[in-house]
Design goal:
410 residues, mainly alpha, 17 helices
Length: 410
């Protein structure tokens, strides 16, 4: 199964065959996963800062949603373009540049004196993510040794773990010490830049080695589908991404406010509940890819999105204890979908790994940002409790997974 073009003259099948004969590049996979943890931890600090920012700048829920929309829409718009560009012309050292943009956004977020500059900080974080995700997903696939679902899950769990750490940092450090303490975590970004520089050197050497290697026979894989069928399947996958990320946007962006309003818990207690949900999401991500390698992507996609519907429908009516349990189940089950969806899409278009990764990461970010903004406006006009009742129906869209063709990995 092919992975991606490496230079403008190297054919994807030859690179794919070379990659499938390699063992898993454990060090590279660990480095790219660790840098994903750092990248998404810094992103999650924005999410964890929402109660502080809302109080300091007297923000409405719509304005809170606008912060999410800004950094996720920025990432959404740029990721497919960057993926398309790097499919044609690989850029091994673009990754540390993306982390540097995220670092600048983090520092600006710590000291921004106005809401407008908070949005500018969010935009810098979005640009960093747009640069990071398509190329890092490609490198995780190159380092996989053919175990694509496993490598994507390991890579994704780094990001989910980083996202889960954010609320803990907020509860333990930022809430007691104020927003400027966000700047203390610039050291983590510098570590990420170092890891990505190491990954960039490996990627450059890999490209040079692949360019010099003789062209072997193409590796066996999945028979290609007709272009019209590919377009139809991609549309179905994007509907599933919409269902997942619009729901997650409402659940995660307003979870602390929901707990505070409905159960009168403290901000720190709400952050700990958010950590539990995000940690369960990280565990679910790690499970989804390897299971998809074994049984196929479609059953994982089907079970993870539609399977979460009963728990989502029950959530708005649960007590505090059951809310904690249900959100952890939702995070665990629903998060297993993305790795399976991404690898499924990469198998549809194996010569366009960067484009596919950018499209799906970008669409996921865009739906998350749009969801946060739309639901914030809805919350201002109704209530957070009513928003949770509305979004509980979104996982039912998982029924469209029945339309996906069953395709076993090669």
């Amino acid at each position: 199964m092919s992975t991606t073009t490496t230079t403008t003259t190297t054919t994807p099948p030859s690179l794919a065959a070379a990659v499938t004969r390699r063992p898993v590049a454990v060090g590279i996979l660990a480095a790219i996963t660790g840098s994903h943890l750092v990248n998404d931890m810094m992103q999650s600090l924005i999410l964890a800062l929402y109660p502080i920012l809302k109080g300091q700048f007297q923000l409405s829920f719509a304005q809170v949603g606008l912060i999410t929309l800004t950094y996720q829409l920025t990432a959404s718009l740029f990721q497919p373009l960057i993926g398309l560009r790097t499919d044609r012309r690989p850029a091994p050292y673009s990754l540390p540049m993306g982390m540097a943009s995220t670092l600048c956004g983090l520092l600006l977020l710590a000291y921004a004196p106005s809401f407008v500059l908070v949005l500018a900080a969010a935009m810098l974080v979005g640009i960093g993510s747009a640069i990071f995700h398509p190329e890092s997903s490609r490198i995780a696939r190159l380092a996989s040794g053919g175990r694509h679902g496993l490598s994507q899950s390991v890579f994704q769990v780094g990001g989910n773990t980083g996202t889960a750490i954010g609320p803990l940092i907020a509860a333990a450090v930022i809430v007691p010490n104020g927003r400027t303490s966000v700047a203390w975590f610039a050291g983590a970004a510098l570590i990420g830049i170092g890891l990505l520089s190491y990954v960039g050197r490996w990627y450059q050497q890999h490209l040079a080695s692949a360019a010099r290697a003789p062209r072997p026979a193409a590796a066996p894989g999945i028979a290609p589908l007709p272009p019209r069928t590919v377009a139809w399947v991609v549309a179905i996958l994007l509907v599933l991404i919409f269902s997942k990320y619009f729901y997650i946007a409402g659940l995660s962006s307003y979870y602390t406010f929901y707990l505070i309003q409905k159960f009168q818990v403290s901000v720190q207690s709400a952050q700990l509940h958010l950590f539990g949900f995000l940690l369960a999401s990280a565990v679910g991500t790690l499970i989804g890819g390897p299971v998809g390698d074994r049984i196929g992507r479609k059953p994982v996609i089907w079970a993870s999105i539609l399977g979460v519907a009963p728990f989502a429908l029950a959530l708005p009516y649960a007590s505090l204890g059951w809310t904690t349990v249900l959100t952890m189940i939702i995070g665990l089950v629903l998060s297993s979908a993305f790795s399976a969806i991404l690898v499924y899409a990469q198998e549809l278009m194996p010569n366009r790994i960067g484009t596919v990764s950018g499209l799906f990461f970008g669409f996921a970010f865009g739906m998350g940002g749009l969801g946060a903004a739309v639901l914030g406006v809805l919350a201002d006009h109704t209530s957070i409790l009513w928003v949770y009742q509305v979004i509980s129906f979104l996982p039912l869209l998982g029924i469209v997974a029945a339309l996906l063709p069953s395709r076993r990995h090669g």
